[in-house]
Amino acid sequence: MTKKTNKKINKLWGTAFEQKSTEAVIKFTAGRDVQAVPPADYKLLAYDLWGNKSHCVMLYKQGIITKKDAQVILKGLLEIETLALKGKFVLGSAKEDVHTNIESWLIEKYGIEQAGKLHTARSRNDQCNLDTRLYLKDQVLGFIEQAAGLAKVLIVQAGKYKTTIVPGFTHHQHAMVTTFSHILLAFAAMIVRDAQRFTTWFKLHNFNPLGNAVAYGTSFVIDQQLTSQLLGFDAPDVSSLDEITNRWEAESDLAFSITILMNHLSLMAQTLIIFSTPEFAMIQLADQFSTGSSIMPQKKNPDPLEVIKGKTAFAAGILQGLLGLGKANFIGFNRDSQWTKYLIMDLVDECLPAPKVMAGVIETMTVNKKKMAFWCQVGFVGATSLLEQLVAKYKIPFRQAKIVMEKAIKHSKGKNKVSYSALKQAFKSENLKLNINPKQVQAWQDPIQIIKLAKSFGGPSSQSLKKSSTILLKQIEGLGGWLEKKLNQKQKALQLLNQQIKKIMEEI
Amino acid sequence: MTKKTNKKINKLWGTAFEQKSTEAVIKFTAGRDVQAVPPADYKLLAYDLWGNKSHCVMLYKQGIITKKDAQVILKGLLEIETLALKGKFVLGSAKEDVHTNIESWLIEKYGIEQAGKLHTARSRNDQCNLDTRLYLKDQVLGFIEQAAGLAKVLIVQAGKYKTTIVPGFTHHQHAMVTTFSHILLAFAAMIVRDAQRFTTWFKLHNFNPLGNAVAYGTSFVIDQQLTSQLLGFDAPDVSSLDEITNRWEAESDLAFSITILMNHLSLMAQTLIIFSTPEFAMIQLADQFSTGSSIMPQKKNPDPLEVIKGKTAFAAGILQGLLGLGKANFIGFNRDSQWTKYLIMDLVDECLPAPKVMAGVIETMTVNKKKMAFWCQVGFVGATSLLEQLVAKYKIPFRQAKIVMEKAIKHSKGKNKVSYSALKQAFKSENLKLNINPKQVQAWQDPIQIIKLAKSFGGPSSQSLKKSSTILLKQIEGLGGWLEKKLNQKQKALQLLNQQIKKIMEEI
Amino acid sequence: MTKKTNKKINKLWGTAFEQKSTEAVIKFTAGRDVQAVPPADYKLLAYDLWGNKSHCVMLYKQGIITKKDAQVILKGLLEIETLALKGKFVLGSAKEDVHTNIESWLIEKYGIEQAGKLHTARSRNDQCNLDTRLYLKDQVLGFIEQAAGLAKVLIVQAGKYKTTIVPGFTHHQHAMVTTFSHILLAFAAMIVRDAQRFTTWFKLHNFNPLGNAVAYGTSFVIDQQLTSQLLGFDAPDVSSLDEITNRWEAESDLAFSITILMNHLSLMAQTLIIFSTPEFAMIQLADQFSTGSSIMPQKKNPDPLEVIKGKTAFAAGILQGLLGLGKANFIGFNRDSQWTKYLIMDLVDECLPAPKVMAGVIETMTVNKKKMAFWCQVGFVGATSLLEQLVAKYKIPFRQAKIVMEKAIKHSKGKNKVSYSALKQAFKSENLKLNINPKQVQAWQDPIQIIKLAKSFGGPSSQSLKKSSTILLKQIEGLGGWLEKKLNQKQKALQLLNQQIKKIMEEI
Amino acid sequence: MTKKTNKKINKLWGTAFEQKSTEAVIKFTAGRDVQAVPPADYKLLAYDLWGNKSHCVMLYKQGIITKKDAQVILKGLLEIETLALKGKFVLGSAKEDVHTNIESWLIEKYGIEQAGKLHTARSRNDQCNLDTRLYLKDQVLGFIEQAAGLAKVLIVQAGKYKTTIVPGFTHHQHAMVTTFSHILLAFAAMIVRDAQRFTTWFKLHNFNPLGNAVAYGTSFVIDQQLTSQLLGFDAPDVSSLDEITNRWEAESDLAFSITILMNHLSLMAQTLIIFSTPEFAMIQLADQFSTGSSIMPQKKNPDPLEVIKGKTAFAAGILQGLLGLGKANFIGFNRDSQWTKYLIMDLVDECLPAPKVMAGVIETMTVNKKKMAFWCQVGFVGATSLLEQLVAKYKIPFRQAKIVMEKAIKHSKGKNKVSYSALKQAFKSENLKLNINPKQVQAWQDPIQIIKLAKSFGGPSSQSLKKSSTILLKQIEGLGGWLEKKLNQKQKALQLLNQQIKKIMEEI
User: How many CB atoms lie within 10 A of CB A186?
Assistant: First the structure.
């Protein structure tokens, strides 16, 4: 009889790993193999309720519905909210969308006489656009927060490697020498810029679509200023026809900012992937940010970084889809635009966690300073510095000095630095007299000396790095202030709304 | 006390509609508002089982595992199959993917001693690529079938409107006159070409990836010819490293063919949407292919056609995402490519039903022949025909005759046809003598006469339409034959596999 | 013998046209059939000279080169400038680029001893990035100016059609009624937003790349604050490695803003194209914005609008190309990024004139007010208004009133308005009592009355339109102020530079 | 006085290079900095003449024009051809396009009486589409030829490295061991598939558009079979309205095939770029496929490979532009589609030389076999092989053996191979008895032994490589035969046309 060992096996690799991945990383890299994507409108439930409550308060204050009507409707909406918070308000698939689910729940429970008035003076288009706008706003804030968080981590990490020399690459080849801090700060600068880019969204789109109706206004005397306040918008839409026709634009603005952010994350990912090959061996990813193989027992793969790259391509595709949806439309609402919802939601879901994953990778990776220094000895990384010294100290015109150096390098074939004799020979062939001693030739090609001299603003010397860090931190602080202001606007709106509701409900 | 009428309301419009939409149309247009997207790997379950069984049979026949091993494994796989057919094999989200779910189910139930041998001589990459390839194959066949079906509908419908005149547009303006049949046959020609394009996929990708292992082969003596036969492939992959590195290409080939198909469907959609405006009023969509408004009681909107347009933009975005995933990779498998799975599956899910929806729209729409004929009286649609007659009958050089006609039209301002007097005036100003009587001038601008004369191949005359129909039907027949051959290959593979399994299982 | 009439013919159509296209429109629509695209670097010549002069002044002021050196170099640069202004500085194709052309011209004419010093303390990457940045800045300003100009035209035109009723479309179907002014103002709102979007570019990218060298700084003591002032930048780049690695990002930011603008222009184009079909006949394009056919003598085609649509697809493709160029790069400069130059330049060349072309189309088109009013009588455009009145005046819950109206419309089949009797029948079937007189039923469906009532903010009533216009004009004014500030920054920079040069050159 | 050395300098680098780049490589990498893009229609001149001649012959044979007419027209066309061959037929920019240039040249020289008849029974759309189709055909053939050429080079080179071991990567990490030949053959397999993909174009689009007229046929009795023969097409278009409406599709089909090809070339480029870093140092590019720096004297940059990557992103963008141009159009010709011409021509110009450049890179690069072998000693590349031996020789279930190996690797930390003692310890902890001697443990991890065992089809062993090469060479041969057939069709068409012309001209 055969022995049976009924092992419980969830993953077919991992025995060799010392630290398990965090839940967030697993989720980010897992994809949708064994995970469903829930119905889209669950994401809008809270926003739809917010919109319904605000609309109802306004209808009452304008005398379009009675206090009694408002009380019944608000009661119902608060009940739905309670259910929703417990995850118990189920969106029935027989009812088209979240709007229909909520309104028909109200009518079914409280009767068409009152609940049937909630939709007065608005269209479903108002609701779609309102919910989307509120959803997008929160995502924009979320991305800014995530990006700022990553930027801070990069600056903190950069602080640790101010004197860690590493080859400065161009064309994947050794160009000059730099510090690892310089690289990390360059990453930080990109990400800060990305965070700033997201803020544009608010300038362009923080306007209230509720009141646009089908796109052509309404004969009811509504108060769009009030609903703007209750919903945290700067003002109502200046044209009822504009945004409804462009239900792809606020989405595209967000998607574009995400795509640029992802492009930068993919740059960081690619750089770290290459730095962590056995050949470069400059860094090693932590176990919790690696995955194994189903067959090769030794593998530790940089999956989270690869997933970031994959999602970057995905982001560009989504943006393309959104822009295509917005091309050459006829004026007024068209149904095509519904698909913008799924595109942007999928994009947000896939990418919002990316900055934090990257921050985790960077905070936990091991930096091999020796290896970085080792590679600085290879490939004439000091040549440009030596060239600059020839120009600076010997007043040889740059263009001529470069010709000399190219020859010197040719004469130094097989080596990694320009030798004294090679330089001498090069000087001679250009009819110049070499007045340098061999020690200087060596010194000017020494990576540590080079870095000390690279004091230009934005460069890799300690002084320059300090200046850059200070500026970037100030920019992050500015973003923090901006974020706070926006969150306050939201907070105030919700407080005002709750006050209004309380007043209406008081006398039941 | 308030009266309460607890109406059950699922959709907030529709009372005015005489025929309800079919389930398929509703699903196609509904989107994901209140519908979840199930885990991707359910789509691969059947393919993974097929692959596992074939691999197991091969391992046994090559002596890599014992008959006893094979029997235990096959027994387990057949059990899973039975469960899966009943929808009872649940993919646990704690187990990474369908491959892990199946293998660990086997190990948990039948022990590592036998079930632990199933993964011998293969890698998870084999399985991913195999399952995907089998899935893609079936989708390709599905799209060809759908497209051919639509093309047939178009040809049948075209048969009904051979003498239905309609303006022939260029630049959205009346250019000449044509028949509605001519337009429908043009649509058919596009769709037939689309169906043919899909067949390329088989030529390029109907090869067996099982046996590639991680990408670098295996030391086990496996029989890739056998598994190719058991899985319905033409042959094993010629390089174990090629396709694993390009896990975006077979997906892109399919996505491209879909995108072109969708572009054509979006052209049809846009044309029909414009034809169905109140201004054109040339066609009217059937109720079951229209949707209403939540606020405007009179609306019948061409939503299914708009959704087709929306999904067309989506398709182009997905293709872009896939191509981006395939750019500038490093040799060997990279995890980024996992996302190709969700991209292509989402695309297939959204677009596969599109041809049938379009067929439905076209079969059920009402064609307003009178209106079509009415518009043929507007905008000088007979001018080119008159011009051709001047050239043909009076031997006036074309280029001169055109100048004459441009002047005649200028003199006919405010009318819809060139008048005899205007033509006369134009002839005079070009120093030509007009030898035509007023009746001829009218006759040569008569839409029905024009169509009769348009006998050039591919044109709108009845004779030409008949020739074109015949050719297109023959092409569809050819596609049918091709399809049958491919389905046979699959059928035979499954039969062979079942025979092999039966043989192995006989002696338990 | 044959008669020979050697007519000079440039275009094979046009005799029927009363007004010739303007040169700008012809150029915009002509494409590249018989027009070459000049070498890209001619666009950078002026910027490269500006950069060279600024760098030279700085080198001198920092003591890196002597006054004599600076004088020789500046003399040469001023000579080149004079030649360039006359179109006489030819970029030799044997010399890689504008940078090489200028430097080698200087060396060839003034010798390596002085001219060979110009490249001290900088890299070609500095120059590329600097020139590009200066070029992009001017394009951003240009687009803002163009967009603001178009927005103004739209507002002025909107002022003319405040009472011109027109069907309000959704789904290409008549939904409600609106004014043509409302449509034009919606266009204006989009374009104002587009103009605002472009300003983001300055916030993110108005920084000085000169001084980044290869990306890793320099040992020369350079003054990047000074060059920032001389070149009109806010400050030097905070990281020398950031922007050089991202030579696709400032381009993408511009390309994205252009793509959104083009999407809006394509929406306007498509709407106007449909409005100008013989079927709609609501507008007619002026002759100078139409083109003819080589064969059909009567054709007046909306080519400029179609070309706008075509270039919109082109724009999205270019953006995609740029984003693809920025995906998953390795840190440091890579040559791939050179192609970003051609992509963005082609895009600017194709699209910068588009707003002005659109403005021309709109200023010169004929609006057929009668036809617009005629179509308002078709397709129940007053149904929603009637519904709102039922709700407002008779306190019927909206949801119930809508059911009533849907039935009333069903009973009014074949008509264009809800009849009194149909409404009565509908009321009855819902057990409601109709208390309205037939006149009211008519009046509430009267387009002119409807518009008067549509006073919601952003809507089509005269009052609403006035409010919206005022806000939009204020936003345009704000953009004007912003533009002036940016142009001042540039002006001041050039003045400062010229002063510095004058000082240096004084003592020759 | 200052000394002046007026050196002639064309490039600001290159002194250190031993071999100059070839002209083709320079052109490929140069871009458009100092190169103009000529007017597009020069590319169509020869095709337009071919079309004109064929049309004229047909008109004569159908009795639509007289022999005299045909003689005059053909004489003129032959004169233009002579001028064109000498580069002396200038496309005047005042005349819209190549069609207008040719026709008006004929009319100006030979009079409207005869030359004015050439445009009888056709439209400019016929000409555009015909010229484009002929142009595209030749490009398709060109790409197939180029791709097949590259594939052959790859196979030849692969023949040289059948025993050159190199790490087999997955996730940029060492996975197993393979041969450099295996990598090169994988490249070859991709490129052969790419060449095959291009052939689809002919199946779908090798049809004659001449005779479609504006899209709605003609009343002239034309012979489209004859022109099909004279122009090398399989048959006339089955619908006159189809292809004119889809003037983006044949372009997209070509663009897609190019994009996939470029994706593969970019994969090769990226792999070679990484292999040629100082850290990997596995290959070194030849001087003639490298470029230098304007400032760093030592640099040899893989510019041609980077340019291939850049153009890959460009290709995807162009494809996207073309697909966008084809979305949701209205039936009939629309002017937007003109831009498809420039998109596809730019794409062809940028990418057609890419395969040859890649072939050059590969033929001339130096392969560092020692370094490749060295890296095979790093990172447990033999672990999977050892695992397979444990399974094969000791009948340990694969899944269990993998757990053992993961532990053994953990115990071998800091080493590059699994040690005997580590393996023993791992066996023990799994309650298994290790029956292997230390030598075997070493041998089964030896790269050279591993390769010898990897005999699975498509794998890296010499036998497998030979089989794969044979198949690929046969496929290339098949493509060669296909190419020849297509070139014959063209040759025959031209011969037939010349015979016809000769006959007509004989009696002048």
Answer: 32
